[in-house]
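explain this:
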Amino acid sequence: MASYAELSTTVVWLLLQMIERRLAKYRRAQPQEKVWSLSGNYRTDYRMAIVIPALAESQSLPATLSALALNSEGLLAQTLIVVVVNQREHSCQAFKDDNQKTLSWLAGNPFPLLNIGVIDATAKGYEFAQKDGVGLARKIGFDLSLECLDWTCRPVLISLDADTLVDSHYLEAIDEHFKKGGQGGAVIPFYHQPGVDAVQEKAIRSYELYLRSYLFGLEKAGSPYAYHTIGSAFCCSAQAYIAAGGMNRRQAAEDFYFLQRLAKTSGVEPLCGTVVAPAARYSGRVPFGTGPTLKQHVDNNLLTYRFVDVQAFAVLQGWLRIVAEHSDDTAVHIMSQAEDLSAVLGAFLGELDFLRVWEKLQRNYASSAQRLAAFHVWFDALRTRQLLTRCSSDEHADAVAIVGALLEWGGAAGTTGTFGEQLAILERLQGVPSPKGGI
């Protein structure tokens, strides 16, 4: 629902009062050791807010904002763009100098068409602690954006990165998706920009094949956590953000853990009609993720990720079916079924104390539907990944062979014999119909 216009004045008032109570509760729960502020914005009627963390991004941020500026003027007028210029207390001097260039450039209002707000987390006393990172940058951007939204509609928070390009349908696709209602969170199709040379290009497409094959396997196994986790490619309603407890403060994997929480509280679904294009660059800004992964691959010929094979996804599929089909049975019976399916699965569940967990679910949830929903909250994206890692048989197997077998198991049509063919199939299935055309 995009607007409350069709509801009575009394109902709208009650809804807004409920939202205000939830907002107040959320604010009370947030730590206040430092108080950042949002400058350059004095409105409280935005329908959408885009949050862009920026650490030493003076060279890439202009292209990102230029791409956003190509979107509908009408939607841009209703969208706040928050740039969170940040650094840690002990960031290198080069990063700090670059951040000052970014702040000076933004102060000149380079894009009058865009409603840009700036959060300065570079001044002494406002820098991040060493343990904090991009998660905190997203968090303070989202949290301060909450005060600028029009809560008489279904306002949306959007996560983007300063090295990422978007197309001219970006805001329109997001707006249309949330107008239709649906789940609280959404992920956007992605396609990394071309590498600067053949080596980097091969490395980023290999990483994409890993990401896309993992998502494909989750979907075919029936996991409720079948979505990609790219920090520059997700969004959610503002109410869903609050319900999920807000963004975490992690230096990396903040997107994974936030989306996991979002899936448990409001749901996550794919969004179509647009594609985002993160940079295929080396980066030391985060301890792990795309940048460090590419650097290790190119510099040291080292894969820091592991393709998951069809045997592992088959175990996951079987396990989820066992629980769904035996949700009224005892913990001992379900455990026996799991051990028959896979000794590795049985051992993993033993470590997780599944017998006690299931007995607790039976006590707390009377219906099988409620119990099954609670099970999926417990057996979440992290436990799913841990199980798949344990069940994958050969970490040295050829990636093309692994993905080919997985595509065949999942019933994907088309030729699956080469790297390029596999990647093209997965791109098409995951909403990237023509990546070679660029953005």
Q: What stands out?
A: Strands lie at 38-39, 48-54, 79-86, 115-121, 156-159, 165-166, 185-187, 234-237, 268-270, 276-277. The mean pLDDT is 90. The longest strand covers residues 79-86.
